Amino acid sequence: MLSRTVIKEVLDISIPAVAEATVYTLMAMLDTMIIGNYGGNKAVSAIGISNEILNTCVAIFITVGVSIGITSFVSRSIGARDIRDAEEYASLGFVIGLFVSIIICYSLFSFSEIILQIAGARGSVLSLSNRYTRITIIAIFFNMQINIINSILRGYGNTYTPFLVSLIVAAFKISLDLILIFGIIGAKMGVEGSAVASVISQAIGFTFLMFYLIYKSEVKIRLRYVLKLSSKKVKDLIFLVIPSSMEDAAFNLSRLLGTFIIMRAGTVSFAANQIANTVESISFMPGMGFGTAVTTLVGIKIGEKNYREAKEYSCACALGAVAMMSVFSVVFLIIPNFLVDLFVDENEKKVVYLASLCLFIGAFEQPAIALSSVFAGALKGSGDAKSPFIISLVTSWIIRVPLIFYFIRILKLSITYVWWVTVIQWTVDAILMFIFFEKRLNNLNRLRK
Protein backbone atom coordinates (compact mmCIF):
# COMPACT_ATOMS: atom_id res chain seq x y z
CA MET A 1 0.00 0.00 0.00
CA LEU A 2 1.39 3.42 -0.98
CA SER A 3 1.56 5.99 1.82
CA ARG A 4 0.05 9.46 1.48
CA THR A 5 3.52 10.99 1.78
CA VAL A 6 4.79 9.00 -1.20
CA ILE A 7 1.71 9.84 -3.29
CA LYS A 8 2.00 13.56 -2.43
CA GLU A 9 5.72 13.74 -3.28
CA VAL A 10 5.19 11.85 -6.53
CA LEU A 11 2.33 14.14 -7.57
CA ASP A 12 4.17 17.32 -6.50
CA ILE A 13 7.05 16.50 -8.84
CA SER A 14 5.21 14.56 -11.54
CA ILE A 15 2.21 16.79 -12.26
CA PRO A 16 4.24 19.88 -13.29
CA ALA A 17 6.50 17.60 -15.37
CA VAL A 18 3.47 16.05 -17.08
CA ALA A 19 1.98 19.51 -17.60
CA GLU A 20 5.24 20.83 -19.08
CA ALA A 21 5.49 17.95 -21.53
CA THR A 22 1.81 18.38 -22.39
CA VAL A 23 2.25 22.08 -23.13
CA TYR A 24 5.16 21.43 -25.51
CA THR A 25 3.24 18.65 -27.24
CA LEU A 26 0.12 20.77 -27.63
CA MET A 27 2.36 23.49 -29.02
CA ALA A 28 3.74 21.04 -31.61
CA MET A 29 0.24 19.81 -32.42
CA LEU A 30 -1.12 23.32 -32.92
CA ASP A 31 1.93 24.19 -35.02
CA THR A 32 1.30 21.15 -37.26
CA MET A 33 -2.42 21.98 -37.39
CA ILE A 34 -1.71 25.57 -38.48
CA ILE A 35 0.83 24.44 -41.09
CA GLY A 36 -1.51 21.70 -42.35
CA ASN A 37 -4.35 24.17 -42.83
CA TYR A 38 -1.99 26.64 -44.52
CA GLY A 39 -0.14 24.35 -46.95
CA GLY A 40 -1.73 20.87 -46.93
CA ASN A 41 0.10 17.51 -46.81
CA LYS A 42 3.22 18.82 -48.64
CA ALA A 43 3.79 21.46 -45.96
CA VAL A 44 3.13 18.88 -43.22
CA SER A 45 5.62 16.50 -44.88
CA ALA A 46 8.23 19.27 -45.23
CA ILE A 47 8.20 20.35 -41.60
CA GLY A 48 7.51 16.80 -40.42
CA ILE A 49 10.70 15.30 -41.84
CA SER A 50 12.72 18.30 -40.64
CA ASN A 51 11.34 18.14 -37.10
CA GLU A 52 11.90 14.36 -36.96
CA ILE A 53 15.60 14.89 -37.71
CA LEU A 54 16.11 17.91 -35.45
CA ASN A 55 14.15 16.48 -32.51
CA THR A 56 15.97 13.17 -32.81
CA CYS A 57 19.34 14.92 -32.49
CA VAL A 58 18.17 16.95 -29.49
CA ALA A 59 16.71 13.88 -27.77
CA ILE A 60 19.75 11.67 -28.33
CA PHE A 61 22.47 14.09 -27.26
CA ILE A 62 20.74 16.45 -24.84
CA THR A 63 17.29 15.48 -23.53
CA VAL A 64 18.11 11.83 -22.82
CA GLY A 65 21.88 12.26 -22.91
CA VAL A 66 23.48 15.15 -21.03
CA SER A 67 20.26 16.19 -19.27
CA ILE A 68 19.59 12.75 -17.78
CA GLY A 69 23.20 12.56 -16.60
CA ILE A 70 22.91 15.93 -14.85
CA THR A 71 19.57 15.10 -13.19
CA SER A 72 20.79 11.69 -12.00
CA PHE A 73 23.98 13.00 -10.38
CA VAL A 74 22.44 16.18 -8.96
CA SER A 75 19.54 14.23 -7.40
CA ARG A 76 21.82 11.60 -5.86
CA SER A 77 24.05 14.36 -4.48
CA ILE A 78 21.00 16.10 -3.00
CA GLY A 79 19.90 12.78 -1.47
CA ALA A 80 23.34 12.43 0.11
CA ARG A 81 23.03 16.07 1.33
CA ASP A 82 26.12 17.16 -0.64
CA ILE A 83 25.25 20.50 -2.30
CA ARG A 84 28.87 21.02 -3.36
CA ASP A 85 28.85 17.86 -5.46
CA ALA A 86 25.44 18.77 -6.88
CA GLU A 87 26.73 22.17 -8.06
CA GLU A 88 29.92 20.68 -9.44
CA TYR A 89 28.01 18.12 -11.53
CA ALA A 90 25.59 20.86 -12.64
CA SER A 91 28.44 23.16 -13.72
CA LEU A 92 30.35 20.49 -15.60
CA GLY A 93 27.15 19.17 -17.20
CA PHE A 94 26.22 22.66 -18.40
CA VAL A 95 29.59 23.14 -20.11
CA ILE A 96 29.50 19.68 -21.70
CA GLY A 97 25.94 20.35 -22.92
CA LEU A 98 26.92 23.72 -24.40
CA PHE A 99 29.86 22.19 -26.25
CA VAL A 100 27.73 19.35 -27.62
CA SER A 101 24.97 21.79 -28.68
CA ILE A 102 27.39 23.90 -30.74
CA ILE A 103 28.76 20.85 -32.56
CA ILE A 104 25.27 19.48 -33.32
CA CYS A 105 23.91 22.80 -34.63
CA TYR A 106 26.96 23.46 -36.81
CA SER A 107 26.80 19.96 -38.31
CA LEU A 108 23.05 20.14 -38.98
CA PHE A 109 23.34 23.56 -40.63
CA SER A 110 26.27 22.49 -42.84
CA PHE A 111 24.70 19.26 -44.08
CA SER A 112 20.96 19.99 -43.85
CA GLU A 113 20.15 19.42 -47.53
CA ILE A 114 22.16 16.21 -47.75
CA ILE A 115 20.49 14.84 -44.61
CA LEU A 116 17.03 15.69 -45.93
CA GLN A 117 17.81 14.01 -49.27
CA ILE A 118 18.93 10.87 -47.45
CA ALA A 119 15.66 11.04 -45.53
CA GLY A 120 13.77 10.87 -48.82
CA ALA A 121 12.70 14.50 -49.28
CA ARG A 122 12.49 15.46 -52.95
CA GLY A 123 11.45 18.39 -55.15
CA SER A 124 9.35 21.11 -53.54
CA VAL A 125 9.24 19.22 -50.22
CA LEU A 126 13.07 19.18 -50.10
CA SER A 127 13.38 22.88 -50.91
CA LEU A 128 10.75 23.92 -48.38
CA SER A 129 12.09 21.59 -45.69
CA ASN A 130 15.67 22.82 -46.16
CA ARG A 131 14.68 26.48 -45.74
CA TYR A 132 12.64 25.61 -42.65
CA THR A 133 15.46 23.49 -41.17
CA ARG A 134 18.20 26.11 -41.51
CA ILE A 135 16.17 28.69 -39.59
CA THR A 136 14.89 26.23 -36.98
CA ILE A 137 18.45 25.12 -36.10
CA ILE A 138 18.86 28.43 -34.23
CA ALA A 139 15.74 27.62 -32.20
CA ILE A 140 17.09 24.12 -31.55
CA PHE A 141 20.25 25.60 -29.99
CA PHE A 142 18.19 27.61 -27.48
CA ASN A 143 15.96 24.59 -26.88
CA MET A 144 18.98 22.44 -25.97
CA GLN A 145 20.13 25.02 -23.41
CA ILE A 146 16.61 25.10 -21.95
CA ASN A 147 16.73 21.31 -21.57
CA ILE A 148 20.11 21.44 -19.82
CA ILE A 149 19.04 24.12 -17.32
CA ASN A 150 15.77 22.29 -16.68
CA SER A 151 17.73 19.12 -15.84
CA ILE A 152 19.61 21.01 -13.12
CA LEU A 153 16.37 22.30 -11.62
CA ARG A 154 14.71 18.87 -11.76
CA GLY A 155 17.72 17.36 -9.98
CA TYR A 156 16.62 18.99 -6.72
CA GLY A 157 12.90 18.44 -7.40
CA ASN A 158 11.98 21.77 -9.03
CA THR A 159 9.61 20.90 -11.87
CA TYR A 160 7.41 24.00 -11.52
CA THR A 161 9.87 26.44 -13.12
CA PRO A 162 10.37 24.32 -16.28
CA PHE A 163 6.56 24.14 -16.53
CA LEU A 164 6.26 27.92 -16.24
CA VAL A 165 8.86 28.36 -18.99
CA SER A 166 6.96 25.94 -21.23
CA LEU A 167 3.88 28.17 -20.94
CA ILE A 168 5.93 31.24 -21.89
CA VAL A 169 7.52 29.50 -24.89
CA ALA A 170 4.21 28.04 -26.11
CA ALA A 171 2.32 31.33 -25.78
CA PHE A 172 4.90 33.19 -27.88
CA LYS A 173 5.26 30.34 -30.39
CA ILE A 174 1.56 29.95 -31.25
CA SER A 175 0.90 33.71 -31.27
CA LEU A 176 3.84 34.33 -33.59
CA ASP A 177 2.86 31.33 -35.76
CA LEU A 178 -0.50 32.93 -36.54
CA ILE A 179 1.01 36.38 -37.08
CA LEU A 180 3.93 35.30 -39.28
CA ILE A 181 2.54 32.31 -41.21
CA PHE A 182 -0.67 34.03 -42.31
CA GLY A 183 0.73 37.58 -42.40
CA ILE A 184 -1.68 39.06 -39.86
CA ILE A 185 0.93 41.79 -39.43
CA GLY A 186 3.07 42.20 -42.53
CA ALA A 187 3.61 39.80 -45.43
CA LYS A 188 2.78 36.08 -45.27
CA MET A 189 5.88 34.04 -44.41
CA GLY A 190 4.32 30.57 -44.63
CA VAL A 191 6.44 27.70 -43.33
CA GLU A 192 9.43 29.98 -42.74
CA GLY A 193 7.21 32.01 -40.40
CA SER A 194 6.82 28.95 -38.19
CA ALA A 195 10.60 28.59 -38.03
CA VAL A 196 11.10 32.26 -37.08
CA ALA A 197 8.41 31.92 -34.41
CA SER A 198 10.35 28.98 -32.96
CA VAL A 199 13.58 30.99 -32.78
CA ILE A 200 12.00 33.94 -30.97
CA SER A 201 9.98 31.84 -28.49
CA GLN A 202 12.88 29.53 -27.57
CA ALA A 203 15.24 32.50 -27.12
CA ILE A 204 12.76 34.13 -24.72
CA GLY A 205 12.43 30.88 -22.73
CA PHE A 206 16.21 30.48 -22.51
CA THR A 207 16.68 34.08 -21.31
CA PHE A 208 14.10 33.61 -18.54
CA LEU A 209 15.73 30.37 -17.37
CA MET A 210 19.23 31.85 -17.33
CA PHE A 211 18.08 34.64 -15.01
CA TYR A 212 16.36 32.09 -12.77
CA LEU A 213 19.44 29.85 -12.66
CA ILE A 214 21.69 32.75 -11.71
CA TYR A 215 19.50 34.41 -9.10
CA LYS A 216 16.94 31.91 -7.78
CA SER A 217 18.05 28.30 -8.25
CA GLU A 218 18.99 26.22 -5.20
CA VAL A 219 21.71 24.54 -7.27
CA LYS A 220 23.80 27.04 -9.23
CA ILE A 221 26.52 26.90 -11.87
CA ARG A 222 29.90 27.85 -10.35
CA LEU A 223 32.76 29.04 -12.54
CA ARG A 224 35.33 27.62 -10.11
CA TYR A 225 34.15 24.07 -10.81
CA VAL A 226 34.49 24.63 -14.54
CA LEU A 227 38.00 26.01 -14.18
CA LYS A 228 38.99 23.30 -11.69
CA LEU A 229 37.59 20.60 -13.99
CA SER A 230 37.50 17.43 -11.90
CA SER A 231 38.43 14.63 -14.31
CA LYS A 232 36.68 12.07 -12.08
CA LYS A 233 33.35 13.89 -12.19
CA VAL A 234 33.65 14.51 -15.93
CA LYS A 235 34.18 10.75 -16.37
CA ASP A 236 31.22 10.02 -14.07
CA LEU A 237 28.99 12.20 -16.24
CA ILE A 238 30.29 10.86 -19.54
CA PHE A 239 29.94 7.22 -18.43
CA LEU A 240 26.25 7.85 -17.69
CA VAL A 241 25.61 10.23 -20.59
CA ILE A 242 27.02 7.95 -23.31
CA PRO A 243 24.87 4.85 -22.65
CA SER A 244 21.85 7.07 -22.00
CA SER A 245 22.39 8.82 -25.34
CA MET A 246 22.97 5.47 -27.03
CA GLU A 247 19.68 4.17 -25.63
CA ASP A 248 17.79 7.07 -27.13
CA ALA A 249 19.85 6.78 -30.31
CA ALA A 250 18.90 3.11 -30.60
CA PHE A 251 15.22 4.03 -30.33
CA ASN A 252 15.12 7.32 -32.22
CA LEU A 253 17.40 6.26 -35.06
CA SER A 254 15.24 3.19 -35.57
CA ARG A 255 12.19 5.46 -35.50
CA LEU A 256 13.89 7.83 -37.95
CA LEU A 257 14.82 4.95 -40.25
CA GLY A 258 11.21 3.80 -40.07
CA THR A 259 10.18 7.34 -41.05
CA PHE A 260 12.53 7.23 -44.05
CA ILE A 261 10.98 3.90 -45.13
CA ILE A 262 7.49 5.35 -44.78
CA MET A 263 8.53 8.51 -46.67
CA ARG A 264 9.27 6.36 -49.71
CA ALA A 265 5.76 4.89 -49.52
CA GLY A 266 4.36 8.24 -50.68
CA THR A 267 3.20 11.57 -49.24
CA VAL A 268 -0.27 10.24 -48.31
CA SER A 269 1.15 7.42 -46.14
CA PHE A 270 3.79 9.71 -44.68
CA ALA A 271 1.34 12.50 -43.88
CA ALA A 272 -1.10 10.00 -42.31
CA ASN A 273 1.65 8.51 -40.13
CA GLN A 274 2.94 11.97 -39.20
CA ILE A 275 -0.50 13.23 -38.18
CA ALA A 276 -1.29 10.07 -36.20
CA ASN A 277 2.08 10.37 -34.43
CA THR A 278 1.39 14.03 -33.66
CA VAL A 279 -2.02 13.24 -32.17
CA GLU A 280 -0.70 10.24 -30.24
CA SER A 281 2.23 12.24 -28.87
CA ILE A 282 -0.08 14.01 -26.41
CA SER A 283 -0.65 10.64 -24.73
CA PHE A 284 3.09 10.21 -24.10
CA MET A 285 3.11 13.13 -21.72
CA PRO A 286 2.14 11.23 -18.54
CA GLY A 287 4.83 8.65 -19.30
CA MET A 288 7.41 11.35 -19.94
CA GLY A 289 6.36 13.38 -16.91
CA PHE A 290 6.34 10.48 -14.47
CA GLY A 291 9.54 9.18 -16.09
CA THR A 292 11.20 12.55 -15.44
CA ALA A 293 9.92 12.62 -11.86
CA VAL A 294 11.01 9.07 -11.09
CA THR A 295 14.58 9.83 -12.19
CA THR A 296 14.75 12.56 -9.57
CA LEU A 297 12.90 10.64 -6.84
CA VAL A 298 14.84 7.40 -7.28
CA GLY A 299 18.11 9.38 -7.51
CA ILE A 300 17.41 11.09 -4.19
CA LYS A 301 16.44 7.80 -2.49
CA ILE A 302 19.49 6.02 -3.88
CA GLY A 303 21.62 8.90 -2.53
CA GLU A 304 19.99 8.28 0.85
CA LYS A 305 20.57 4.51 0.38
CA ASN A 306 16.87 3.95 0.98
CA TYR A 307 16.20 1.27 -1.65
CA ARG A 308 12.81 0.26 -0.30
CA GLU A 309 11.42 3.75 -0.85
CA ALA A 310 13.15 3.94 -4.25
CA LYS A 311 11.02 0.97 -5.31
CA GLU A 312 7.91 2.42 -3.67
CA TYR A 313 8.28 5.73 -5.53
CA SER A 314 8.89 3.87 -8.81
CA CYS A 315 5.70 1.83 -8.41
CA ALA A 316 3.70 4.96 -7.56
CA CYS A 317 4.99 6.70 -10.70
CA ALA A 318 4.25 3.62 -12.82
CA LEU A 319 0.69 3.43 -11.47
CA GLY A 320 0.09 7.12 -12.17
CA ALA A 321 1.48 6.91 -15.70
CA VAL A 322 -0.54 3.81 -16.62
CA ALA A 323 -3.76 5.29 -15.22
CA MET A 324 -3.39 8.54 -17.15
CA MET A 325 -2.26 6.95 -20.42
CA SER A 326 -5.08 4.42 -20.32
CA VAL A 327 -7.51 7.34 -20.54
CA PHE A 328 -5.92 8.22 -23.88
CA SER A 329 -6.32 4.61 -25.00
CA VAL A 330 -10.07 4.93 -24.55
CA VAL A 331 -10.15 8.27 -26.43
CA PHE A 332 -8.15 6.86 -29.36
CA LEU A 333 -10.49 3.89 -29.57
CA ILE A 334 -13.67 5.97 -29.54
CA ILE A 335 -12.96 9.17 -31.55
CA PRO A 336 -9.84 8.74 -33.76
CA ASN A 337 -11.53 10.37 -36.80
CA PHE A 338 -12.51 13.48 -34.87
CA LEU A 339 -8.93 14.00 -33.64
CA VAL A 340 -7.39 13.50 -37.09
CA ASP A 341 -9.91 15.86 -38.75
CA LEU A 342 -8.43 18.73 -36.73
CA PHE A 343 -5.15 18.46 -38.64
CA VAL A 344 -6.09 18.18 -42.31
CA ASP A 345 -8.48 19.62 -44.85
CA GLU A 346 -11.70 17.61 -45.30
CA ASN A 347 -10.69 16.92 -48.93
CA GLU A 348 -7.73 14.78 -47.76
CA LYS A 349 -9.98 11.74 -47.21
CA LYS A 350 -7.27 9.10 -47.73
CA VAL A 351 -5.00 10.78 -45.20
CA VAL A 352 -7.84 11.04 -42.66
CA TYR A 353 -8.81 7.38 -43.10
CA LEU A 354 -5.26 6.01 -42.73
CA ALA A 355 -4.34 8.30 -39.83
CA SER A 356 -7.52 7.32 -37.96
CA LEU A 357 -6.72 3.60 -38.31
CA CYS A 358 -3.17 4.18 -37.07
CA LEU A 359 -4.43 6.11 -34.06
CA PHE A 360 -6.95 3.36 -33.25
CA ILE A 361 -4.12 0.78 -33.18
CA GLY A 362 -1.99 3.16 -31.10
CA ALA A 363 -4.53 2.85 -28.28
CA PHE A 364 -3.24 -0.65 -27.50
CA GLU A 365 0.36 0.44 -26.79
CA GLN A 366 -0.34 3.18 -24.22
CA PRO A 367 0.00 1.16 -20.95
CA ALA A 368 3.24 -0.45 -22.18
CA ILE A 369 4.73 2.95 -23.11
CA ALA A 370 3.85 4.22 -19.62
CA LEU A 371 5.64 1.32 -17.88
CA SER A 372 8.65 1.48 -20.18
CA SER A 373 9.10 5.24 -19.66
CA VAL A 374 8.87 5.04 -15.87
CA PHE A 375 11.16 2.07 -15.29
CA ALA A 376 13.73 3.38 -17.79
CA GLY A 377 13.75 6.65 -15.82
CA ALA A 378 14.05 4.73 -12.55
CA LEU A 379 17.05 2.78 -13.85
CA LYS A 380 18.79 6.01 -14.87
CA GLY A 381 18.00 7.62 -11.54
CA SER A 382 19.74 4.70 -9.87
CA GLY A 383 22.81 5.30 -12.03
CA ASP A 384 22.22 2.48 -14.53
CA ALA A 385 21.94 3.75 -18.12
CA LYS A 386 23.40 0.62 -19.70
CA SER A 387 20.36 -1.61 -19.16
CA PRO A 388 17.88 0.77 -20.87
CA PHE A 389 20.34 1.03 -23.77
CA ILE A 390 20.57 -2.75 -24.20
CA ILE A 391 16.79 -3.13 -24.01
CA SER A 392 16.18 -0.30 -26.48
CA LEU A 393 18.78 -1.71 -28.87
CA VAL A 394 17.08 -5.12 -28.86
CA THR A 395 13.48 -3.90 -29.22
CA SER A 396 14.29 -1.22 -31.79
CA TRP A 397 16.68 -3.03 -34.10
CA ILE A 398 15.58 -6.66 -33.74
CA ILE A 399 11.82 -6.04 -33.59
CA ARG A 400 10.92 -2.58 -34.96
CA VAL A 401 13.18 -1.94 -37.98
CA PRO A 402 13.20 -5.43 -39.57
CA LEU A 403 9.43 -5.82 -39.28
CA ILE A 404 8.68 -2.34 -40.67
CA PHE A 405 11.04 -2.93 -43.58
CA TYR A 406 9.45 -6.32 -44.26
CA PHE A 407 5.83 -5.13 -44.17
CA ILE A 408 6.26 -1.75 -45.90
CA ARG A 409 9.16 -2.15 -48.35
CA ILE A 410 8.97 -5.84 -49.25
CA LEU A 411 5.28 -6.70 -48.93
CA LYS A 412 4.20 -3.07 -49.58
CA LEU A 413 1.35 -3.34 -47.10
CA SER A 414 -0.62 -0.56 -45.41
CA ILE A 415 1.01 1.90 -43.02
CA THR A 416 -1.19 0.41 -40.27
CA TYR A 417 1.20 -2.56 -40.03
CA VAL A 418 3.86 -0.18 -38.70
CA TRP A 419 1.61 0.56 -35.74
CA TRP A 420 1.00 -3.11 -34.92
CA VAL A 421 4.78 -3.56 -34.93
CA THR A 422 5.19 -0.76 -32.36
CA VAL A 423 2.54 -2.35 -30.12
CA ILE A 424 4.70 -5.50 -29.98
CA GLN A 425 7.89 -3.47 -29.49
CA TRP A 426 6.58 -1.46 -26.53
CA THR A 427 5.14 -4.53 -24.80
CA VAL A 428 8.47 -6.35 -24.87
CA ASP A 429 10.29 -3.13 -23.88
CA ALA A 430 8.09 -2.56 -20.81
CA ILE A 431 8.51 -6.12 -19.53
CA LEU A 432 12.30 -5.98 -19.84
CA MET A 433 12.60 -2.55 -18.20
CA PHE A 434 10.68 -3.77 -15.14
CA ILE A 435 12.78 -6.96 -14.84
CA PHE A 436 16.06 -5.05 -15.09
CA PHE A 437 14.95 -2.46 -12.51
CA GLU A 438 14.07 -5.18 -10.01
CA LYS A 439 17.46 -6.74 -10.61
CA ARG A 440 19.22 -3.37 -10.13
CA LEU A 441 17.61 -2.73 -6.73
CA ASN A 442 18.39 -6.26 -5.57
CA ASN A 443 22.06 -5.79 -6.50
CA LEU A 444 22.26 -2.44 -4.68
CA ASN A 445 20.70 -4.03 -1.59
CA ARG A 446 23.25 -6.83 -1.64
CA LEU A 447 26.15 -4.38 -1.96
CA ARG A 448 24.90 -2.39 1.05
CA LYS A 449 24.77 -5.54 3.18
UniProtKB/TrEMBL annotation:
GO CC terms for this protein?
plasma membrane
**Which residue positions does the secretion signal occupy?**
none
Entry keyword set: Antiport, Cell membrane, Ion transport, Membrane, Transmembrane, Transmembrane helix, Transport
Where does the record say this protein resides? Cell membrane
GO molecular function annotation: antiporter activity; xenobiotic transmembrane transporter activity
Pfam families, alphabetized? MatE (PF01554)
Q: Does the keyword Isomerase apply?
A: no
Question: Does the record bear Endoplasmic reticulum in its keywords?
Answer: no
Q: Membrane topology for this entry? A: Multi-pass membrane protein
Q: Where would you find the membrane-spanning parts of this chain?
A: 21-41, 53-74, 94-120, 132-153, 165-187, 193-215, 282-303, 315-339, 351-377, 389-411, 417-437
General function of this protein: Multidrug efflux pump.
Q: What is this protein called?
A: Probable multidrug resistance protein NorM
Give the organism the record lists: Clostridium thailandense
